[in-house]
Design a protein that fits this description.
The chain is an alpha/beta fold and 526 residues long. The chain contains 24 helices and twelve strands. The radius of gyration is 29 Å and the shape is elongated.
Length: 526
């Protein structure tokens, strides 16, 4: 572990860079609370989504890196803003009509349309907890409702009343003129209707910790700011939460970045020390548009896990978090294969290389071995030529290529075979387009067929690759034109695997038959 710690102190891996920056926060003395606090926030108006996963996964990577370079204990809090009012009825819930009368009430006071929990907020919080538990995250869950109503925010809320003008000054500078006229950092919760009110304050009594306001009917009310009678607007709430919990680190998307000075200043006004931040770039869909929960573009958690493991998703999340990345179905096979490449490399690496290997940041020191003896991209091509409907169809080829492999001894490979069949049927099969070979390509394919017909070298992928290469070396410049021809004529795809490896997996006789079908026009006609 000491070697890893030494390597981590100079590693350019972004989790270690962030961890070292965080450690400087306590270079003079450890935190009085006894631990370093990481936080992620969650808006429970809907179900957890891929952005939620990315935020918790990346925060966990930095937390894990911090634990390598420091002996200070750590905690991760997942904070649910469930005291927020329900602004609109979600379109994807049962019995939506029952929610209409509860608009603007806190989500934890809205009945659960699913009928399984005490409130809609409780239902969505349970989904969040189940979601995080499924991926094995270590965290402490905090409900905003419980935090406010149990008085855990009272000290900071009283301070907000005392410093009301100072906090308002920060906020008003960021608002349009018409919004300034009615804005208040406090949102009172109506004593009769239970609705979260967006109304201006007539008076804030700093000494008594009370606010006076008129409701929508013009009736005047005075409420204490404590005990869950009011909540803070979301931007002041961000800074107040940092002050109340003494948060040391929080990351959020680029869309929040312009608010960072606001969050920081409010935290400081309310007596806290601003945390370290990390701003990540947003995900884009295949067309370069921002991924949105509302429009449903991009890839969802459930969709990714239909075609690949959660570890491959963590690997994708690790890659260049400060660079906008397109997140669509085509990236999944590449992420799977690169993840397993890194797993295989890890076993033979020294501490410095391991500190920069993504799989350390995904698994910590307990990095598993990869038993993917066949790359995922190869499984996809195998599923394609075999027109596989079940993963059992792939295992006949796999076991001929790797006789000691079985679903029992290689569960990751078995799982990947199932993923490959699903991905092939949903994405590859509908897009397969074969073409007829040109005369030059026919000549090269006949050469390859003849070499395979005379082949006595067994299933040596590298030796077979040399034969494939030899068929194209004198005929094609650049050589990629030859490999493109193999993929398009034989596989109906624009790209594919190292073809020698494919022949070793699919079989020499089977590849000869595939070439015959292509040259006869059977693949195009089919």
């Amino acid at each position: 572990m000491s070697d890893l710690r030494d390597a981590a102190m100079s590693s350019k891996a972004w989790p270690f860079e962030e961890a070292r920056r965080l450690l400087k926060r306590y270079d003079k003395a450890p935190p009085e609370k006894g631990y370093v606090l990481f936080e992620t926030g969650y808006g429970p108006s809907g179900l957890p989504h891929i952005g939620t996963f990315g935020e918790v996964a990346r925060t966990t990577m930095i937390r894990r890196a911090f634990e390598v370079i420091s002996d200070i204990p750590t905690k991760l809090i997942c904070f649910s803003d469930d005291l927020d009012g329900m602004r609109k009825v979600p379109g994807n819930v049962p019995n939506p009509e029952m929610l209409t009368e509860h608009l603007q009430r806190p989500l934890t006071d809205v009945p659960d349309p699913f009928g399984t929990h005490d409130s809609f907020g409780a239902h969505n919080n349970a989904m969040l907890n189940r979601f995080l538990d499924t991926f094995g995250f270590e965290y402490e869950f905090i409900s905003s409702t419980e935090f406010y109503r149990a008085g855990k925010f009272d000290e900071v809320l009283r301070r907000a009343a005392e410093k009301y003008d100072d906090v308002m000054k920060v906020m008003l500078k960021s608002l349009r003129e018409e919004r300034r006229e009615t804005y208040s950092i406090f949102l009172p919760i109506h004593p009769e209707t239970g609705r979260v009110l967006y109304v201006p304050m007539k008076h804030v009594d700093a000494a008594r910790g009370e606010v006076t306001f008129d409701d929508e009917d013009g009736r005047e009310w005075t409420l204490p700011v404590t005990g869950g009678n009011v909540k803070l607007q979301w931007k002041p709430d961000f800074g107040a939460r940092w002050a109340a919990l003494d948060v040391d680190f929080e990351m959020y998307g680029k869309d929040h970045s312009t608010n960072t000075p606001i969050y920081d200043r409010i935290c400081e006004i309310l007596g806290g020390k601003k945390p370290e931040h990390f701003t990540y770039e947003l995900f884009l869909d295949a067309d370069g548009h921002k991924i949105s929960k509302t429009t449903g573009n991009g890839v969802s958690i459930d969709e990714w896990l239909t075609y690949a493991s959660s570890e491959s998703l963590s690997y994708f999340m690790y890659q260049k978090p400060k660079t906008a990345k397109r997140m669509h179905f085509d990236v999944i096979p590449k992420a799977v294969d690169e993840y397993h490449q890194q797993l295989r490399a890890y076993a033979g690496q020294d501490a410095k290389a391991r500190a920069s290997n993504p799989v350390f940041h995904i698994h910590g020191a307990d990095v598993p071995a990869s038993n993917m003896v066949v790359p995922f991209s190869m499984l996809l091509n195998l599923a394609s030529v075999a027109n596989a409907e079940e993963k059992a169809q792939l295992w006949g080829f796999i076991q001929r290529y790797a006789s000691d492999a079985s679903p029992q001894t290689h569960p990751d490979l078995d799982q990947a075979a199932g993923f490959a069949v699903a991905y092939y049927n949903d994405f590859v099969k509908p897009a397969k387009v074969y073409r007829v070979a040109t005369e030059l390509e026919r000549e090269a394919l006949m050469d390859l067929r003849g070499r395979l017909d005379a082949w006595e070298g067994g299933l040596d992928a590298e030796a077979l690759q040399s034969e494939v290469f030899a068929c194209g070396r004198e005929r094609f410049d650049p050589m990629r034109a030859w490999f493109s021809a193999l993929y398009e004529v034989l596989l109906g795809a624009k790209q594919g695997p190292r073809f020698g490896g494919f022949i070793a997996l699919y079989g020499v006789e089977e590849t000869i038959e595939l070439i015959d079908q292509a040259l006869a026009g059977d693949l195009v006609n089919a």
